[in-house]
Design goal:
Oligomer: single chain
Strand content: under 5%
Strand order of the largest sheet: 1-2
Structural class: mainly alpha
C-alpha cells in the first residue's frame, strides 16, 4: 500500500505544477473517491467537467461521488447531495442514451440509497431491452450490455425490501 500512496502523492505534485492537465485531474479525483475524500473528488471532477461538459463518464463519476456523499454519516445535507447525485446520473443517462448500461447504473444507485421499488423498475427495464453484444453510441464508444447483472440485482432488491415474504 505504501507504493500506492507514494504514487498518489507524485500525481498530486504533478497536478499542482500542471493544473490544466485533464487526465491528471481525473486520476486524482479517482484517488480521492477511493480514499473517501468525496468533497475533494467533487471539486476535481467539476474542474474536469468544465473542460468536457458533454462527457457522460464525468457525469457518472460526479453522480456516484454525490451519492457517496449523501450516505456518509458526517454530511450536513444528505438529501441535497442525493438530489445532485440523481441530477448528474440522469444527465449521464441523457448523454449516453437509454441502454442497459445506463438503466443498470441508475438501478444500482437507487438500490444504494434504499429506493428499492425504483431500483427494481430500472432492473426490469434492463431485462426488457434486447441484449446486444456490444454496440457503439454517437460518441464512438462501446456500450456494454448488462442484463445478467440486472437479473442478479432484482432478487437482491426484493430480498432486501421483503425478506420475510421470500422465506
Amino acid at each position: 500500500n505504501l507504493p500506492d500512496v507514494r504514487h498518489q502523492k507524485f500525481e498530486l505534485r504533478v497536478l499542482l505544477k500542471n493544473p490544466d492537465n485533464l487526465p491528471l485531474l481525473i486520476i486524482n479525483a479517482h484517488h480521492c473517491m477511493q480514499n473517501g475524500t468525496f468533497k475533494f473528488a467533487v471539486v476535481l471532477y467539476q474542474r474536469a467537467l468544465e473542460r468536457l461538459p458533454r462527457s457522460a463518464f464525468l457525469h457518472l463519476c460526479l453522480g456516484l461521488c454525490f451519492l457517496q456523499l449523501s450516505t456518509v454519516r458526517y454530511t450536513q445535507r444528505p438529501y441535497g447531495h442525493a438530489l445532485e447525485a440523481f441530477a448528474f446520473l440522469y444527465r449521464y443517462k441523457q448523454l449516453r442514451g437509454e441502454c442497459q448500461e445506463t438503466l443498470y447504473n441508475l438501478g444500482r444507485a437507487f438500490h444504494h440509497v434504499g429506493l428499492l421499488g425504483l431500483a427494481v423498475n430500472c432492473y426490469e427495464k434492463v431485462l426488457q431491452l434486447k441484449p446486444g453484444q456490444m454496440r457503439w453510441n454517437q460518441q464512438g464508444t462501446t456500450v456494454h450490455e448488462s442484463s445478467i447483472l440486472s437479473a442478479k440485482g432484482i432478487p437482491m432488491s426484493i430480498n432486501e425490501s421483503h425478506p420475510l415474504d421470500l422465506r
